[in-house]
Amino acid sequence: MTYWTTMIVGRLAQTAMVAWTIVTMCFVFVHVLPGDTALRIAEARGGAEFLNVGRAEEIASEEGLNRPILLQYGEWIRRLATGDLGVSLVSGQSVTSELWYRGQNTLVLGIVGWLASHLVALPIGICAALRPRGWVDKLSSFYCVTMASLPSFLMGIGLISIFALSLRWLPPAGFRSPEHLILPAATLALGLSAFSIRLIRDTVREVNGAFFITFARTKGLTASMALWQNGWRNAAIPIVAFAALQFAAVVDGFIMIETLFNFPGLGDLLVSSMLARDVPMVMGAGLVAAVGYGLVNLAADLTSLALDPRISQRDQRRATFR
Amino acid sequence: MMRRMQVASIAVLIVAAGIHLLLPGDPNSQDLLRALEGPSLLHPFGFDHLGRDVLLRVAHAAPRSLGLAGLCVVFAYAGGLALGMIAAYRGGLVDAVLMRLVDLLLAFPGILLALLLAGFLGGGPGPILFGISLGLMPQFARLSRATAGQVLAEQHVEAAEMAGFRTTAILRRHVLPPVIHSTLPIGVLSVGGAILSVSSLGFLGLGIRPPTPEWGAMISEMMPYISEARLQLAAPCLAIFLSVLAFAHVFTTGRKKVTAGRRHD
């Protein structure tokens, strides 16, 4: 039990450190880098035409920009700690509500893409493993090698070009109906499946060649019976652990995919607010992405611990020997 | 079979890095009358929305994209090796602090760190280099710390210490060679990932700014014209794909041999 708590606390502390780094980076950007902060905020609020020194000074006193920098940093952290992420410099709306709306979209996209990738990868991987050097195996390993070098946004461009422009089956961009989800989710799924097919194939093949399967076969079970009764739990451990880890990789991939498909999610928000220099929004989106990534990673670790008690036992033994 | 793959990938990389020397001309010169014109014999990939020769731009972007990616890896590699070796040699508090820093960098999801840094510092080669190499560094630091730790525990290092060699000499002569040996393949392999990161940032509008030719930026520039000019859009895509594929295959032979050997016993 102590092993679990140590691991959870360690992971959470690490995620908190990442969050703090992002917050501090944003603070440094706003206050220390060249350029007058008040002028920048005034420009973002009223546009460049209405920009003047008087207005900027008003904002500076309003926002407390004249105070010592450390005091402002303390204030910045204190406000965040109470859950107040501020308002967008561009739209003037609350960052939290925007994040909530965008986060849901991203979550839907991530879950659909992730599930789809495993629905495709499991049968293909298992087929390839059961018939080594068969046509499924050859075709799928060619697919994996190619896809591993094909960045997601290139694949997305290809899919848009075929299914949205040539065949006109699906909408190319935006998110107004469930149909809009298909192409970005497919892009995500194809990219993920390249890695999981290979892992599933290798795992199933390894389990299939293990001694306990040979033993089950000598007992008189058929090949499929042996694999089904004795093998699947052993094969499931790495596959499920990897699947959970891949969900964390979704957090990485969605930035490119959402920008490409103009999908109103967190990644698109992060990039567009970065281009507009909307610091509170960048900070909010960055925080959600980093914390989400940390938590999903933690969940992945916990899943593999729950599935395979050998991990915690092995690590504990190592700790006592040290 | 694998040997052929390696030769092919090295050939692709040489062609990519050198083809701009064979194609003279200014990649930024515009001929608006020929905007979005299709392919012809002299201009096999046609013209983009501003009437610039796409092949010329892709060719002139290659040394920049590849060079920037290579430099990112070189910086990350040098920094990671230095950090890892110092951490392993000093041990104790220095080790703990450095490795926690590395853990912190590892906990950033993928491209987020590079995106934040390049975005805040305002595009251009410098911030890109900084952001991407900071993201790549942790893996090299981890790996080299592990190898350096093993080597430092060996007796010839102890002997060198007792003989009175200076720290830098010991690290350079006894620790650096095995550390390089264990990390170099991954270093070369990660150039492909760095190419991807550079072009991703360009695509997002946070990397190298147009009109400077860069593959990712070219893609995002051409995206609005995707239905009229697919070939023009395909050219930079193909360039990215081929160079990432090439870097992935430069070192596969070694890995294949290892797994093949293991299968025999």
Level-1 CATH class name of chain B: Mainly Alpha
Rounded radius of gyration of chain A (Å): 25 Å
CATH overall fold name of chain B: MetI-like fold
Shape assignment of chain B: elongated
How many strand segments of chain B? 0
User: Secondary-structure element order of chain B, as H and E?
Assistant: HHHHHHHHHH
Q: How far is the first residue's CA from the last residue's CA of chain B?
A: 23 Å
Number of domains of chain A: 2
CATH 4th-level superfamily of the largest domain in chain A: MetI-like
Mind describing the biggest β-sheet of chain A? Answer: none
In the residues of chain B, how many domains can be counted?
1
Beta strand % of chain B: under 5%
Greatest interface and its participating residue counts: A-B, 42 and 33 residues
Range of helix content of chain B? over 70%
Task: Please provide a written account of the structure.
Chain A has helices at 2-31, 37-46, 53-62, 69-81, 95-130, 135-148, 152-166, 179-208, 211-218, 223-261, 266-275, 279-307, 309-321. With 322 residues, chain A is an all-alpha fold. Chain A folds into two domains: 11-81, no CATH class; 95-321, MetI-like fold (Orthogonal Bundle). By secondary structure, chain B is an all-alpha fold. Chain B has ten helices and no strands. Chain B has helices at 2-22, 54-90, 92-106, 112-121, 125-152, 155-162, 167-204, 215-222, 230-249, 252-264. Chain B is elongated, with a radius of gyration of 22 Å. The chains are: A mainly alpha (322), B mainly alpha (265). At the A-B interface, α1, α7, α10, α11 and α12 of A face α4, α7 and α9 of B.
